[in-house]
User: Fold this.
Amino acid sequence: MRSRKVVLPIHVVSERRFAASSGSPFATWLDAAVLCIVFAAGLAHLRSPFGGDQFLFTIGAAKIAHHGVIYRDFWDLKQPMIYYIYAVSGMLFGFSQSGVHLFEAFYQTAFAGVLIRACLPRFRYRWAASIVPLLTIAAYYGFANDGALASVEAFAGFPIFVACVFAADAFTTERGATSNALIAGAAGAVAASLKFAFFPLVVAMWVTALALCLRSGDRRHMLNVALLLALGCAATFGALGSYLAGTGVLGDALRTAFIEPPAILRQLAPAYRSPMQSEVRTFAGAMWPLVALAIAGAIARWRRMDVFTAQLLVWTGVGAALVDAEVWSYYYKFFILIVPIGLLAAGGLEALWTTAAKGGRFPRIAIAALLLIMLASSTRTIARVQSGLRTFAREQHDAVSSSVAFLDRADARSGPIYVFGDPRLYYFSGRDQAIAINGYSPALLLPARWHELVRELEAAAPPYIMIERDYEPSVHVSSATMRFIASSYRVAYASSDGTWYEHR
Assistant:
């Protein structure tokens, strides 16, 4: 049986021939040094404080790890994969801030190795592929501010990149196309299981690769790859769906992912949407050296546009649109852009190096001076961010110290509690969450969820319920909840942080 030849655009062929004939080693001392730097950056953040989401993920993951089921024993509006990641992290290293950060250090180092290997045939110079993790993962570790590490967006870069690059390889070469397409499809489903909004981003990169390769490729091969992508994606979704169905929560999972979000957006007043300007300024101020190099890399690669570069540009554009579409703007949402910006920035460095090599001593000195200025700016920003993390850690603990002291009294009643507010209180007090529905974002609860929440509180009868001051307006929206608290609880302790109610 004769194998079909996949006809590729000339720029793709020339790049692959260069990589194949360059004699570049599979791994170099620079690769090892970069991997060590990435892992050391992760270890340096072992004591970095959690944000509210990370506390929530840890609490939910602990329930799942102890034979709990997502959406039944712990309900959140988010997709389930982040809770499974935290559950694995907790079982390996403990359900603590340092345990999660240690797991992420290994996770991001593995991602760094995949980045280097995947970039070998995509850069002219061997060192350019080696330093990609410094411009992506190390940049993430350096610029992540208060409570932003180990977020959904931080874990999403790995599966999105795999979905991107394996699909590109499957479309552009017949060798290994079947396995590459299946892996890309599975990775796309994993990314969507972290956050379903990532799925349009992955599909956009697949469509980009298909559209470019259709111009001069074997259409039958392209169709086969597209079908295999769909198969890998469907198989992964099917496995997850089968597990959720087996635990009896598939209906709730589908309702949480597809039915409730549009209803919540209609429910939220326009005033709930937070402005993006502050986060854009923060991200741009921290990342401008990488952004500048990424622009240079995009310009340099524009004339010889290959599938991978086109995918990176689509990733940047669609990712920015997803960030802009968020109801609440948070700094960590921008992490979804760091990987494509860092990869394009590596192309910018490569282009500057090539220009300097042709121009003699003066261009090399000028480029070196420019890079040193960028490095100095980045170092100053990183130092400021790391200093802010220590301050944020103290604020996190101090904000709940009075509540923890209230729960630690000798006459305090034991048992799980319930908090309408930041879930860090569960973590620092050592108390479990009394019911499945979390109270971290009551503004996102629909009337049916409020009814279920009241029913669960009535059944669980936790000894204490806390309503944080900032969450009072959202909780008072549910008159049934307030009636239940008024009839079954009395005020036990009030402070500037909020009010503790004790069961009568």
Remarks:
- The two ends are 80 Å apart (CA to CA).
